[in-house]
What we know:
Blueprint: H1 2-27, H2 33-46, H3 49-53, H4 56-70, H5 80-86, H6 89-98, H7 108-118, H8 125-137, H9 144-148, H10 151-160, E1 165-169, H11 179-183, E2 195-196, H12 206-209, E3 216-220, E4 233-236, E5 243-246
Antiparallel strand pairs: 1-2, 1-3, 4-5
Helix pairs in contact: 2-10, 6-10, 7-8
Amino acid sequence: MKNLSFRFNIQILRTISQVLFFALSLLLVGSNRTVGTVLFALVFFIGVFFCGWVCPFGSLQEWIGKLGDMLKIKKRRLPQKFQRIFQITRYVIFALFIYKIFYAPLRARATFGEILTEGFSNVTVAALVILMVILVLSLFIHRPFCNYFCEKGASYGLFSVLRIFSLKKDASKCVNCRKCDKNCPMNVEISRTNFVRHPNCINCFQCMGNCSRKAISYGIFKLSKSNTTSQTKIYKCACAGRRSFAMPPSGTS
């Protein structure tokens, strides 16, 4: 019951945060560099907090996804081998964005922001069509834009592997039921590591709330003294072939 209570409370708190920032995005015109700097700094402490708690476009996709659940529309997930390949796309888009050769109408998140702040006057038909396709896909796929196309999420994710706080799994309590993996909207394989420092983790805490064994908690990342360097594995991240260091489940080599 305590686990269900936590799950309910944390998701209520997250929904309040999402609604609040969604409303603020309607009131605040233009970008605020101070807010952006603060959110970026938070990445080094708690990871990609922005995507799971603040981003209006991410919230909208999530709400549409919940509408799909209410309509009994089954969510589709790619097999992990394809998931890793397709998640490379948002890093490719990020690289193109950095080098200023990214075609603007494909930036669905930016298009959504322009509609919120300026209306439809400066939005091209191509950009609007792509935005609508992304939103419709949200009925069938968890956060499709966040998973595969968002250049801002990619930039935050690159630095979030250095976060101080992260999700932790108690291997002694875990029975490898993989409920955490199945409930993760960002398709992170939480069951494969004791510390979740994946660049796609958005701190939604769905894994923690759905773990009936209470094997997942949240706290400061630190290497266990009982684990030697030889026991540390390098797990492949589900993006761009990057690698991140994570403690393996106890008993592995």
